[in-house]
Amino acid sequence: MHRIARISIPILTLCLASPILAQQGPDTTWVPYVARPAYPADGGPRVGIDEAHLNFHTVEGNYRPFAELLRRDGYRVGASALPFSRAGLALFDVLVIANARGGQDAETVSNSAFTAEERAALREWVRGGGSLLLIADHAPFGAAAEALAMEFGVGMSKGFTFDTVAGRNAGNPTFLRFTRENGLLGRHPILEGRGAAERVSVVQSFTGQSLSVPGGSGVLLQLSPTAQDREPPTPEEMRAQAARRQQIADSIAAAIRAGGARDSAVAVAAQLQAQGEQRFVSAAGRAQGVAMAFGAGRVVILGEAAMLSAQKVEIPGRPTIRMGMNVPGHDDQQFALNVLHWLSRLN
Predict the structure, then answer these.
(1) Which among 206, 225, 101 has a CA at the least distance from the CA of 160?
(2) Is the pLDDT of residue 2 over 60?
(3) Residue 220: in which H helix or E strand, if any?
(4) Is 179 exposed, middle or buried (0-12, 13-18, 19+ CB in 10 A)?
């Protein structure tokens, strides 16, 4: 293990500071376009997006653009609103779980989001032919999904993944770029699509965690030898950080009322970045996306959620920040479609 101090994460820092400072939600101005739908309108496989586990991304929330993209490709998309069971899972061909949480406060948010019974039901549903897209990005989401990911042999770092080498990020060390040019895109049917028009050349993530790569799985998004994981905070550190953020939020609210929003945002970033050294470990050999067969079923696990979304973050006094498919310069929309095509056995 080696240690690095004060790596700047401007967008992430501001978003974590306080809901008073940053408002995050779907970018309803972004409209997906599918040139060659895979299925007739509403004639495709049934996709359930999990909403039974305090999910940060839901059909009408942050994953609204993703749901609309799939509908334009012919999928039938709806919410999966009940705990996982054999009968409930039979309603879907593909299940999507994005950023489930174990609770709603600092004490419980990192708890496992899924009971042992749910994990067993889901494992056997996949083994029998179901398809699962499991997504869990930076802390605290990795810890909440870790036990479920381990049902399929995938370990989660549970923290934040960085790469400071130019060409492997998009100007922010947590906004990682996986390209054919930098050698970080794997070799898999998902990345090739159904032909040249669907071939993926660039995938960008927007602050996530790393995943272990079990034997027999295919790597989609390979982390480089210079990638690092910032380890997740301990429960004591989480409590201290929550208290510190609340103090900062109170001062921000007062500053905004006094008309000093922009200066306050800068001050918050400085205060949060000045929390001292963080624990870092190498993420070499790990990934942010893996795919595998599991019995008669298929599984894709991603360590970052925003790349399949189209979100915007509003911070008083600052330009709107966009994250996901609504950001130019990558093939994240095609990657999203190709993932679903593979899970629904089009390729």
Answers:
(1) 206
(2) no
(3) strand 218-222
(4) middle
